[in-house]
Sequence to fold (505 residues):
Amino acid sequence: MKEITPEQIASIIKTKIDEFAPGVKTREIGTVLESGDGIAHISGLPNAMASEMVQFSSGTYGLVFNLEIDEITAIVLGAHTSVKEGDTAKLTGHLMSVPVGPELIGRIINSVGEPMDEKGPLNARKFRPIESPAPAVIDRQPVNVPLQTGYKSIDALVPIGRGQRELIIGDRSTGKSSIAIDSIINQKGKDVICIYVAIGQKDANVVQLAEKLEEAGAMDYTIIVNASASDAGSLQYLAPFSGCAIAEEFMYAHNKDVLILYDDLTKHADAYRMLSLLLRRPPGREAYPGDVFYLHARLLERAAKLNDTLGGGSITALPIIETQVGDISAYIPTNVISITDGQIFLSTDLFNSGIRPAINVGTSVSRVGGQAQIKAMRRIVGNLRINLAQYREKESFSIVASELDKETKLQITRGKILVEVLKQKNYLPLPVENQVAILYAGTKGFLDTLPVDKVQSFETKLFTEIEHNAPEIFEKIRKDKDFDGLWEETLGKLILKVKEQFVTE
Fold:
């Protein structure tokens, strides 16, 4: 080993002395004047930024909310008892950010990006601010690629496209979350990243949801952001923004299509109302603050389909809103209806009468429409909504069916059959080729003479028959997204064959 001479040591020391530059680092440290209910009033931080993170002496973080003349107000991101009067608070110099990237896939995290699933640290290499501007109009392109939910009634009547914002709205226990879960399960193998944001729900329900997704193999492409009912209001407020930041990373940096579900924004608005009242902001309609519309608008505007120059990624947002006794004219429902590109309205009456999913076709709409459907589906469902509307109108006449003319009887029969065709069980989403086959049978009148209670079993038998004896029927739709005369002839013969078996049975 080469020896170092005293001259070399002296030279190194001299160089280091010459390079030394004395400097003074300043750090602002404030004092907590008052703390209660998760709100901390802090003095002595004149250079604080809005949405900047502050760290209290207890190690808990806070988020700067109000910038006032003599003090700032921060919301505590954790237990409200962890911050007391007299504690110190220092600025971090960072806006509120969360970990992002592929390392989060398959994980359950909280609103600030901490793991909740006992699978170890996230090891995320990148962070992203939770608030960011929505893509400009010039950065977007029209929504024209379908995002299949696996539900016949949605994909046929209120189709959703990649980059769209479609509201799911309805009373409590009408199957809103079931649609969200099935939409995630149906993305398997479609190269779509799914993010489920649970706001104000029971932890047990979120665990149950994760288990269902695990069973279906859907956690391989899903991230769950959980701010449960037992969490602080500040964490419930942050959850959707954290989920959106994670989604944006996949859209911008990885050019991926992302599906994000906010379950639900009613509880999010309630958490924001609570924080605003504690911050002494003036209340408006239903005691919500004046900027509650902006709260949801700036969140949902970040969903978009980017143009090809920016990579062509997309975020599809499915916000959920809970109504009271079907009142869609309340403040938060009307706000979100006006922000989104359509809504799926779930009716309690339909749900209780056994129609699942309980979609009210009359009040549900997609403002993207046929652009979010494959050509085969577009051709088949052209008259479906009209047939259902005619059936709803004349349904009450079915009690006196003997006095009705032949055409009205046919409309009522066809309507009953179509309602039965659109029924579907939970957690069994259908591929689009299966949907096209059964909807073709229903809309073309093949099932008009079939007893209504046999429709579901007929559907199962038809799918089995196609898979075993005519797989080219499904393959044609999968490959070409359309059908021709030969396809119609082959499927027609097969439908009649299966129908004969039902008659003989």
